[in-house]
Design a protein that fits this description.
The structure holds 2 protein chains of 2 kinds. By secondary structure, chain A is mainly beta. Helices cover about 0% and strands about 50% of the residues of chain A. Chain A has no helices and 11 strands. In chain A, the strands form 2 sheets. In chain A, strands 2, 4, 5, 9, 10 and 11 form a 6-stranded mixed sheet that branches. In chain A, strands 1-3-8-7-6 form a 5-stranded antiparallel sheet, with no helix packed on it. Chain A is globular, with a radius of gyration of 13 Å. Chain A starts with a strand and ends with a strand. The model of chain A has no long low-confidence stretch (mean pLDDT about 90). Helix content of chain B is about 0%, strand content about 45%. In chain B, the strands form 2 sheets. In chain B, strands 2, 4, 5, 8, 9 and 10 form a 6-stranded mixed sheet that branches. A 4-stranded antiparallel sheet of chain B has the order 1-3-7-6, with no helix packed on it. Chain B is globular and about 40 Å long. The chains are: A mainly beta, B mainly beta. The interface of A and B includes residues 32, 46 and 49 of A.
């Protein structure tokens, strides 16, 4: 079993819709969870992080964490074609507070005009 | 520039040759990481430097891989006797000391192709 799992997609949504990206992780001791966005041919950039159960909102993005279910998700409201990218879920193993992250394979999002 | 700088951006080499990849982190960042990304794969942690502490080498896939960081700044990743499975994009990232957010600032990567 992979430590961080994501559906590779592609996930296709129409412009203006809500895109829902999901991620599961295997290490129950994980404390920190991150979503990185990677445009084709570019390097990843951090868009959200979440530590506590529940929702965290930042503009059109909402991260959701459920530690009991070992599940973290990213919602993108009012999706735009510029949101088309690969979204990488990443987790700190255990109680690590470093950038030593375990990444999922990423979900490719396509937002169609 | 203000970002993480990596060189070369592209490297094509023959199987069995040694390669060196360089990373210049953001000024003031004391933590430096190397990851690699193979085609269609997620990022794979290789090695982590934090200040003057011993590096965390737990992600290096074999003893053909090594890295050093001189003067707490520039880092070099060396791959000896390259193999075709080493072909990947090697990404360097840096962050502030003690930062808990896992916010890594990535360079544009060095694409390695082993023929």
């Amino acid at each position: 079993q992979k430590e961080v799992e994501q559906n590779s997609g592609p996930l296709s949504v129409p412009e203006g819709a809500i895109a829902s990206l999901n991620c599961t992780y295997s290490d129950r001791g994980s404390q920190s969870f991150f979503w990185y966005r990677q445009y084709s041919g570019k390097s990843p950039e951090l868009i959200m992080f979440i530590y506590s159960n529940g929702d965290k909102e930042d503009g059109r993005f909402t991260a959701q964490l459920n530690k009991a279910s070992q599940y973290v998700s990213l919602l993108i409201r009012d999706s735009q074609p510029s949101d088309s990218a690969t979204y990488l879920c990443a987790v700190n193993l255990g109680s690590s507070n470093t950038g030593k992250l375990i990444f999922g394979q990423g979900t490719t999002l396509q937002v169609k005009p | 520039g203000a970002g993480v700088s990596q060189s070369p951006s592209n490297k094509v080499t023959e199987k069995g040759k040694d390669v060196e990849l360089r990373c210049d982190p953001i000024s003031g960042h004391t933590a430096l990481y190397w990851y690699r990304q193979s085609l269609g794969q997620g990022l794979e942690f290789l090695i982590y430097f934090q200040g003057n502490s011993a590096p965390d080498k737990s992600g290096l896939p074999s003893d053909r891989f090594s890295a050093e960081r001189t003067g707490g700044s520039v880092s070099t990743l060396t791959i000896q006797r390259t193999q075709q499975e080493d072909s990947a994009v090697y990404l360097c990232a840096s962050s502030f000391a003690g930062q808990n957010t896992g916010e890594l600032f990535f360079g544009e990567g060095s694409r390695l192709t082993v023929l």
